[in-house]
From TrEMBL:
Keyword Hydrolase attributed: yes
Gene3D superfamilies per UniProt: alpha/beta hydrolase
Keyword tags: Hydrolase
Keyword Hydrolase: yes
Membership in a protein family: Belongs to the thioesterase family.
Pfam families registered for this protein in UniProt: Thioesterase (PF00975)
InterPro entries according to UniProt: AB_hydrolase_fold, TEII, TesA-like, Thioesterase
Domain Thioesterase TesA-like residues, every copy: 19-241
The protein's name in its UniProt record: Thioesterase II family protein
The species this protein was found in: Nonomuraea recticatena
Amino acid sequence: MTEWVSLPCPRPEAAIRLFCLPYAGGGSVEYQQWADLLPATVEVAPVHLPGRERRIRQQPYTVMKELVADLADGLEPYLDRPYALFGYSLGAWVAFEVARELRRRVVYRGFEQPRALLLAAAGPPDLPRDPTTYDLPDPALVARMERLGGTDGMIVDDPRLLAVVLPKLRADLQVADTYTPIEEPALPYPIRAFTGDADGLVSPEQARAWQWHTDEDFRMRVLPGGHFFMHERRAELLRFIVQDLEIAS
């Protein structure tokens, strides 16, 4: 219905639809694999951002407010059943802001709010920030990616590959680095936070701060692994997600 969302394994009888948002520079490949791994009660709906994969020719966003407004428009046709939002790293912040945008729209659009917000590898955006990274020189940006484990399987000394990867990564990082959240009431549904015990960017204490953004139940799970624990601990993460969605649906 829109270019923002796909349903790799349509499940009309599923109890809940799970929108999945990628980390900075990432795409939908991981989430397309989830569609075959999650039970029939969950319909996985990867979110496709401009500048990658099937939208490779489109200009990526650099401003959070613009991204969220257009993404919320793109999600609206898919809000015809119970749903939840999952976001990883930058995707967690985007999911959080989309949730708040949908709350603003619910009064005059008539659709329901999410049943739950699942946020991984990120603390809330109102915590103190590190210096900006989107404007780092190429070698420094690649070195940072390597330290975080974000270049696994990537030939980082291939200039042709970097010419494709780095522009969308910089655009995503600019979304994060220039984003300042406004103060709003806590969300009226559960939040689940996931973090890696060896994440060099997000400590468990930072991830736990998501509890202040919900008026409902909060739970945090710490998994073994670094910032990209979703690849290292996929089975455990998916098991917890299923448990959380069973409660929400």
